[in-house]
């Protein structure tokens, strides 16, 4: 089995606040990793370093074999040229808690924006592919709608279609259902579950334990900038070894 994401000893501080205190994590191709942990434990920062939205201070991250940051204490940080960073970022899909759709663009234009402007795909080709993706997320009839005319669940499904339009090799989800009314959570999780069954490599930060139990290959529990424990859902969720994991699970279950 090949490794899609390899994170070694990653450290990240904001000023004097150390937010990632030596993260080691390996994500295999085709697998789903669910990241759990209390607010402020560093989950979003970890996702953002994988997508080059934050630079690491120390450590190494490689995505699909391409190294994106590396420094041993005292050494100089190897940094990629900005052009290469942008190129790599287009191969990693990122779905945010608050959808982040372009409000002034239709659903269709939201989905084709990146393929046309970043990847220089012919518009007609991008449109055809966008219709196919909108159908996949159950929104074939919403291509001409504007985001404000959609429910939160529908907007998040558009955001997923938009991420897929770049044919990413890796998808990152940062609490994709946290901003949704409870009755809309299921329709978004259904789409993510479908992607999992298609063998999409994903890292999903979520508090949806039922989803983690069902879909995750690996569950990672983070607290205070560290990975406290990781393993198959049957172990981490059912028989956690660490007291901090037990305490967290007792609060969210
Ligand atoms: P989580 O997603 O687990 O809630 P975050 O990664 O968002 O945690 O944040 C971890 C810690 O880093 C928090 O204390 C947060 O306030 C801090 N933090 C995150 N981003 C920044 C930033 N850009 N500048 C300063 N502090 C930040
Ligand atoms: Mg977060």
TrEMBL record:
It is an enzyme of class 7 (translocase). It is a peripheral membrane protein. Its main location: membrane. InterPro entries: AAA+_ATPase (IPR003593), ABC_ATPase_HisP-typ (IPR030679), ABC_transporter-like_ATP-bd (IPR003439), ABC_transporter-like_CS (IPR017871), MetN_ABC_transporter-like (IPR050086), P-loop_NTPase (IPR027417). GO terms for molecular function: ATP binding; ATP hydrolysis activity; ATPase-coupled polar amino acid-transporter activity. Pfam families: ABC_tran (PF00005). It is found in: Cell membrane. It comes from the Bacteria. Keywords: Amino-acid transport, ATP-binding, Cell membrane, Membrane, Nucleotide-binding, Transport. Its EC number is 7.4.2.1. It catalyses: a polar amino acid(out) + ATP + H2O = a polar amino acid(in) + ADP + phosphate + H(+). Residues 5-249 form the ABC transporter domain. One of its GO terms (cellular component) is plasma membrane. CDD domains: ABC_HisP_GlnQ. Belongs to the ABC transporter superfamily. This is ABC-type polar-amino-acid transporter. It comes from Streptomyces aurantiogriseus.
């Amino acid at each position: 089995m090949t490794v899609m994401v390899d994170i070694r000893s990653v450290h990240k501080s904001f000023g004097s606040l150390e937010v990632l205190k030596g993260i080691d994590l390996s994500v295999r191709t085709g697998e789903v990793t669910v990241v759990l942990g209390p607010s402020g434990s560093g989950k979003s920062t970890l996702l953002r370093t994988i997508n080059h939205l934050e630079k690491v201070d120390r450590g190494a991250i490689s995505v699909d074999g391409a190294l994106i940051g590396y420094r041993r204490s005292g050494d100089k940080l190897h940094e990629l040229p900005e052009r290469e960073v942008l190129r790599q970022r287009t191969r990693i899909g990122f779905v945010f808690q608050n959808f982040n759709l372009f409000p002034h663009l239709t659903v269709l234009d939201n989905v084709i924006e990146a393929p046309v402007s970043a990847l220089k795909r012919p518009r007609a080709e991008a449109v055809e592919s966008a219709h196919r993706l909108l159908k996949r997320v159950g929104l074939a009839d919403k291509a001409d709608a504007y985001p404000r005319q959609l429910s939160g669940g529908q907007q998040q499904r558009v955001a997923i279609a938009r991420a897929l339009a770049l044919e990413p090799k890796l998808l990152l989800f940062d609490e994709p259902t946290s901003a949704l009314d409870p009755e809309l959570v299921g329709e978004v999780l259904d789409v993510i579950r479908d992607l999992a069954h298609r063998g999409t490599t994903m890292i999903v930060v979520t508090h949806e334990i039922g989803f983690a139990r069902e879909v995750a290959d690996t569950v990672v529990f983070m607290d205070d900038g560290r990975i406290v424990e990781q393993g198959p859902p049957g172990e981490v969720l059912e028989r956690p070894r660490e007291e901090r994991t037990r305490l967290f699970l007792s609060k969210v279950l």
